[in-house]
Amino acid sequence: MSKVGASDLDRLHVLLAQRTFLLAFNDAVRPLADPVDIQTTAIRVLGQHLGANRVLYFEIQGSDYVVEHNYIHGAAALTGTFPVDSFSPWVLEAQHAGRTVAVAEVAADPALSPERKEAYAAIGVSALADVSLVKNGAFIAGLAVHFSQPHAWTPEEITLCEDVAERTWGAVERARSETALRESEDKFRSLFNSIDEGFCIVEILFSENGIPVDYRFIQANPAFVELTGLPADALGKTARELVPDLEAFWVETYGEVALTGHAVRFENRSDAMNRWFDVYASRIGGAGSHQVAIVFNNISERKQAEADIRELNRLLEARIEERTHNLAAERAALEVANDELQAFNHSVSHDLMTPLRHIAGFAQLASRSLDDPQKSRRYLDIIVQGAQRMETMIEGMLALSRTGQRELSVGVVDLNDLLKQSRLDVQVQHKGRIIEWRLGQLPLVQGDCVTLQQVMTNLLENAAKYSRERDPAVIEVWAEEDVQQWTVFVRDNGAGFDPARAGQLFGIFQRLHHQDEFKGTGIGLSLVRRIITRHGGTVSGTATLGQGATFCFTLPKPERAPMII
Questions:
Q1: Residue 370: enclosing H or E segment and its boundaries?
Q2: What three-state secondary structure class fits 108?
Q3: 518, 495 in Cβ contact below 8 A?
Q4: What share of the chain is helix, strand, coil (3-state, %, to 5)?
Q5: Cβ atoms of 56 and 66 closer than 8 Å
Q6: Which of 123, 231, 459, 465 could form a disulfide with 490 if both were Cys (CB 3.0 to 4.6 A apart)?
Q7: Tens-digit pLDDT profile for residues 547-557
Q8: Do 329 and 322 contact (CB within 8 A), yes or no?
Q9: Is the pLDDT of residue 172 over 50?
Q10: Per mean pLDDT, which of 19-33, 305-319, 352-366, 469-483 is the most reliable?
């Protein structure tokens, strides 16, 4: 067995001391989080271990090296900013190459110039070791150890200095990274807590066959609770735990984001939560991650304002349409009034003047025939008939005038009720006649009950009058529906009229049959047209001579008509 020499024991002691030192160094530096504390502790521990007079850690900033802290023991402190080129050229070369420079005795070193020796002496440096740290090809930091007396550097001491320099740099960079990370996290947390938008991270839960079935809330900001209305202890719970009747859309959408990695932005309403949301959702992590980040806003008020604007627009459009319809009706009424005014002028100048002339003429004849009582009586009868005719025409004109002046009381009118009453009135006037009534179901309409009763009675009376030669007379009444209105038809199998003269039907005192055939004033259809026009509808008539006639009129539907059973 070989014996261990004294030199070997000395080396073992050095290695043990070095190991002990590094353990103590790590214990001293490890708990420190501040870069400055790390630097000051590292250079103090190293300086005390080596018995050095000064130890400093410096960093390169541009063309300068910056010394912020020293460990000193019987030496003056060196802090501040110094130019890198203040080092000797050979030292600079070694530093940029990452080589350590060790000088045992400055005054006796032939590599140092007299100026450099003088400079070192001025700061009390008799021996030194400069450790350079080069990272990614750049000289970034270093460690300097100074002795006030010459010092014979051992290889173990140089290695220890290099090891401490490397560990110090690593600890400082770690601390700076952690500090930057904490600051970043603090900023993120501050932003996370202060933003008005809701934010949450959810984990999508899948079934055994890979179908998304729910999601669990992992993280959320304060705005999350306010914007969703969910409880503050929502974290750790699933969406369906919190909202049992939550729509499948939400789970399916977030599940698709997790599976594909494709971010989505959308607006959607949750009836279960009674809210509208504007949502941006994106996957966190790569393929296989089930976490989705969700940024959202509660836009219920905006949507309500849009549901209100749309309603206002709808009401405005309805009012415009109603006004347009009313203007059209007013225009039609003015046209009718103008036509009736012209007809009135014609009636005054012609229809009323004719019986007046007859009265005047036969009055003269009667006065000349006073000696012939029989002839005078016949002339007087003709005069009476003419006066009665004038009275009837004047009454008709007054009725037409009153119809135009009367204010309409508009409401929902059941035309079936009007039809029943008008049919009874017509049957009373035509007792003994056989009339076959074919009556369909009539609708509810918007209108004035009193004047619409006049319309129905006039049309049924006309149908009965002009079909008196038929046995049986057939009168049909039915209705047809359009989008916004109803059309009511009244058809008979009577005398009809010449279609070429249909344009004269609704004029005042206009008759398409001779008075001897069918008595009347020619006011009825004019009255019908005026009433229907005031209701915003239209009226027309078609016929074939000798084969009956059909009249129809339109009326608007009521806004809220009850269902007819």
A1: none
A2: helix
A3: yes
A4: 50, 25, 25
A5: no
A6: 459
A7: 888 899 999 88
A8: no
A9: yes
A10: 469-483
Alpha carbon distance 134, 169 (integer Å): 11
Closest C-alpha among 205, 277, 188, 289 to residue 240 = 205
Question: Which amino acid is it at 233?
Answer: D
| Beta strand pairing call for 435-439 and 473-481 | parallel
Q: Which residue has the tokens 């046995």?
A: 471
252 is written with which tokens? Answer: 């399916």
What does the alpha-carbon distance between residue 200 and residue 220 come to, in Å, rounded to a whole number?
4
- The amino acid sitting at 264 is V
d(Cα 51, Cα 520) in Å, to the nearest integer? 141
Residue type, position 159, single letter: T
Q: What is the mean pLDDT of residues 259-280?
A: 93
Contact (Cβ atoms closer than 8 angstroms) between residue 294 and residue 281: yes
CA distance 358 to 204: 102
297 neighbors 227 (Cβ within 8 angstroms)? yes
The first and second tokens of residue 60, run together, are 């390169």
Long-range contacts at 299-307 (CB < 8 A, ≥ 24 apart): 299/267, 300/274, 300/275, 300/276, 302/276, 303/269, 303/276
Rounded Cα gap, residues 506 and 529, in angstroms = 7
Q: What is the pLDDT, as a whole number, of residue 350?
A: 52
pLDDT exceeds 90 at position 250: yes
What DSSP state is assigned to residue 347?
Answer: I
Give tens-digit pLDDT for 322-367. Answer: 787 777 767 766 776 666 556 555 555 555 666 666 677 777 777 7
Phi, psi of 147 (to 5 degrees): -120, 145
Torsion (CA) 162, 168, 173, 179 in degrees, nearest 10: 180
Tell me the pLDDT tens digit for each residue of 436-465. Answer: 999 999 999 988 888 888 888 889 988 888
**Rounded-to-integer distance, Cα 219 and Cα 201, Å:** 5
36 pLDDT more than 80: yes
Task: Return the structure tokens found at 348.
Answer: 């005054």
Dihedral sign for Cα atoms in the order 362, 363, 367, 368: negative
Q: Dihedrals φ, ψ of 514, to 5°?
A: -70, 150
pTM beyond 0.70: the answer is: no
Distance CA(477)–CA(488), nearest Å, equals: 7
